[in-house]
Amino acid sequence: MAEDIAEYRLAGCNEHLAKPIDKQRFYEVLSRYLTLSPFAVNPGGRQYRGRVLVAEDNDDNRSLVERMLRRLGAEPVMVGSGEEAVRRCLAETVQLVLMDRHMPGMDGVDATRLLRQAGFRRPIIAFTAGDQAETDALLAAGCDGVLNKPIDHAHLQSLLERTLESDGAPVDTLENDIGHLVSRFVAGLDNRRRHMTMALTGQDAATVQQESHQIKGTAGAMGYPMMTEQAGRVEQIARRQPCDWPALAQELTSLNDMIDRALAGSGHSRDTTQEPAK
Asked: What pLDDT is recorded for position 118?
């Protein structure tokens, strides 16, 4: 096996996939060499009119959603906190709100409840990568529906179809390059990994939960679906009381291995850690 891999590398191959194929490894290799396109061509050729306020504190998600909305013709209004969401919704004209749950200061549940108490009647959609309990809390506060993260272009378009006016104008089919968004997301993984590792050492489950939640909500849309799943497992264990520290350490090791490979594949890593040959 090792001799075969050496011959492939001498012939010019960049990496190898051992058989039987490991699904996680397969998806991660695809994500490094294929172009991610969340901005698929709009098959209905429709553009939508209206202002969409997006309350989201994750920079990568915010940039991605902003691009997707602009491509579909909507005018995005981007905010990073619940307080700012409430202020702008009540002071400006917006037709639709996408409300994240976890934000600094006032969270999405309190922001939604306050908007409804103030008489805001436009649609508010829970925009979350959380579990069912988080979704239920947002719906109970006054959200009208759910848009799950990582964001899916078809689901976003379907939401705009239901909530905004459209003019049927053809959409520009020129593919937008989102490579810099993916690169920025991957580069930020190094700090998130460091924070989670330090938090594990200090038995700070809240920080592990926060960082893994951010990864879970973004990685899939950036081309790392298996990382989203693994981050969700880490978040779930970190949320439990009392925390199962050995189980958390095991799942976090798996997540950090994925981060190492993503960093190595993008050139952001300080080393060249790769999955060992099997």
From this structure: 93
* Bond into 242 cis (ω within 30): yes
Class (C level, CATH) for 2-34+178-266:
mainly alpha
Residues listed for the chain: 278
Report the alpha-carbon distance of residue 160 to residue 44 in Å, rounded: 13
Cα-based angle 20, 228, 60 (whole degrees, multiple of 5) = 135
> Tens digit of pLDDT for each residue in 20-58?
566 556 655 665 555 444 444 444 567 899 999 999 988
Q: What CATH topology corresponds to 48-166?
A: Rossmann fold (3.40.50)
User: What whole-number distance in Å separates Cα of residue 85 and Cα of residue 61?
Assistant: 16
**For the chain, what are the domain ranges?**
2-34+178-266, 48-166
Q: At what angle do helices 23-33 and 245-266 cross, to 10 degrees?
A: 30
Percent of the chain whose pLDDT exceeds 70: 77
Tokens describing residue 217: 């909500």
Cβ contact 126:147 at 8 Å: yes
The radius of gyration computed from the CA coordinates of the chain, to the nearest angstrom, equals 21
Give which of 195, 179, 165 is closest to 256, Cα–Cα: 195
pTM for the full model? Answer: 0.63
User: Can you give the pLDDT at residue 266?
Assistant: 65
> Within 10 Å of residue 69's Cβ, how many Cβ atoms?
23
Query: Cα(31)–Cα(187) distance, rounded to whole angstroms?
Result: 15
pLDDT at 17: 73
Within 8 A by CB and 6+ apart from 6, the residues are none
